[in-house]
Amino acid sequence: MMILKVVVILILFSVVPLCIGKAATAGIQKYYADCIPFWMILGFLIMLGVFQLITVPFTLAEIPFHFLVYLYSAILLLLVVYGGIRYGKLLWNRLYKFIIDRKWLNVVFLLAIILILIQMLISVFTENHMSGDDAAYVVYANDIVYTDSIFGYSPYTGEYAGIGVNKITLTSWCVFMAFLSKISGIPAAVIAHTVLPFMLIGYAYMVYYLMARVLMKDSYTKIGWFLIVLSALHIGGDFSIYTLTFRLLQIQWQGKAVAAAIVVPFLIYYMYVINEEPLQKMEYVNLILISIAAAGCTLVGGGLALMVIVIGSISMAISRRRIGIWLRSMLCCIPCGLYCAAFLFQYTLTAWLRG
Asked: In the chain, what is the greatest distance between 2 CA atoms, to the nearest angstrom?
């Protein structure tokens, strides 16, 4: 039974995002879009973006959690079947080509992989950082599974608290942890402190690999040194709760950590690599879903995503002398901006009524 649970998790974090990511880059004939790690990360963020779009209406409408599980599972199944049927052979050929490619059999690059695996395993087999957030977010995920109510019950008292517009109900990361728990049968606490550290650290270093791939021109030796230096900084950087090390290696299960270590860095990378003629419609669609994924992790992440898009689009518009790029990018900010605006309106109104 445990083997089956592990298989389900591995499929959700490998096969599913790989198929979705490849399908999302269909027709994009650019250098960055022809890369397995890119497909993996993009697919995962699209999963989070779609989940956010579905979860918030379900939360505010107080629809039972199991309906969300059925709907989202069906959407994932359709996307995977489509991607698998249409691009399965291509994905298999790319994986086979990568395995037989001798370029990655590089001492420096392999050392970097070993350092990354050490960080992943230590995070799994040693005690993670415990804080008051465990009493909220992990308990929220656990209660969602067992009460079949999305954010309906207080994590502190266990009593029904009702649903309102706030920074929790406008995000979906806790619910995503509950979904992983429900679909795999693994308790939410185990998902948070064992499964997610291993998977998310791997995802984070895939993002950093993609950045190095651009900076180092596909030189595996240079990419290896880049990842080794980055690993050393992360391993030695746990001296404050304000460093990326704390987010990446201590509290990976929190939405704010996912946004800081994976979503926002990937968005910065994405804004850089799409700056190439011509920008295609699917690139804008992916941009929308990535920004929504950031808001789904934490509303602060959504705000940071908006800043990255605004600054990146202004840079592209100036460099190409095309205002249309900036205008279309601003339109991509609207869905993510709505979540942030809803929270700011609620917060301001509450403060005004209390004052």
From this structure: 67
Other C-beta atoms lying within 10 Å of the C-beta of residue 341 = 11
Cα separation of 355 and 351, whole Å? 6
> What's the CA gap between 296 and 48, in Å, rounded?
7
Helix boundaries (H) for 185-219: 188-190, 196-215
Angle, nearest 10°, between helix axes 173-184 and 36-60? Answer: 100
Q: Across the strands, what pairs with 160? A: 153
Task: Give the integer Cα–Cα distance in Å for 127 and 104.
Answer: 33
Distant-in-sequence contacts of 65-70, Cβ < 8 A, 24+ apart: 65/144, 65/145, 65/147, 65/148, 65/149, 65/150, 65/175, 65/178, 65/182, 66/148, 66/182, 68/150, 68/175, 68/179, 69/179, 69/182, 69/183
95-99, 113-117, 209-213, 332-336: least confidently modelled range: 95-99
Structure tokens at 6: 């592990």
Task: Match 């590089």 to its residue by tokens.
Answer: 106
The answer to whether 244 and 237 have CB atoms below 8 angstroms apart is yes
Cβ atoms within 10 Å of 286's Cβ, excluding its own: 23
Measured between alpha carbons, how far is 297 from 48 in angstroms, rounded to an integer? 8
Scan for tokens 């990360």, then name that residue: 41
What phi and psi values does residue 185 have, to the nearest 5 degrees? Answer: 85, 5
> How does pLDDT run across 183-226, given as a tens digit for each residue?
999 999 889 888 999 999 999 999 999 999 988 887 888 999 99
- Is residue 273 within 8 A of residue 280, CB to CB? The reply is no
Find the distance separating the first CA and the last CA of the chain, reported in whole Å: 55
Number of H helices, E strands in the chain: 17, 0
Quote the CA–CA distance of 151 and 260 in Å, as a whole number.
24
Q: Which amino acid is at 267?
A: L
